[in-house]
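1st attempt posting a full record on here, be nice pls
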Amino acid sequence: ERDLIVESLPEDVIELGKKLPVDIRKQFVSLMTAWGADSKNLYNPKSRFIDYVVPGVIGLILQLLTVTLMACTIARERESGTLYQLLVTSLQRGEIVIGKMLPYLVVSICLVVVIMALSWWHFGVAFYQPHALALICLLFLLCSLGLGLLISTFSRTQTQAIQFSVFFLLPVFVLSGAFAPLEQL
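the predicted structure (as tokens):
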């Protein structure tokens, strides 16, 4: 087999190889052996479509709720005039932001627990490494809440906040691949 590989090389490569010492030539020929790759599905080894879709739906629902609710919260405060009242109090701006984000973070974490329990119980979706998954979900929720806060800084009304949220989240839904057919993966 190796002789066929060597014979298929161009003449100038063979001439160059003849000038090399014997041990380097042996290493060169041993590197030319055919490589192989084996694929192994670590997640969803049975290739069930529901095991593929449910985690994507969980992420999309969480992002939709956290971004939209957080964006509307600050915009609602601005519309009603209570944001200015909060700013003139002795509270620092960071404390106000944390006070607005914390309830939505707690509600979102409860929502994650409910959705994952329902997915496991009703659909039989297995979630591996729950501690890593919890950390990833927490970081995802914090980023989504931060995106909602960013959107709320640009919007003056709740309607604008919802429109900006849809503007940002629609490409996320389309490009996430959560609803792509399994055959295309």
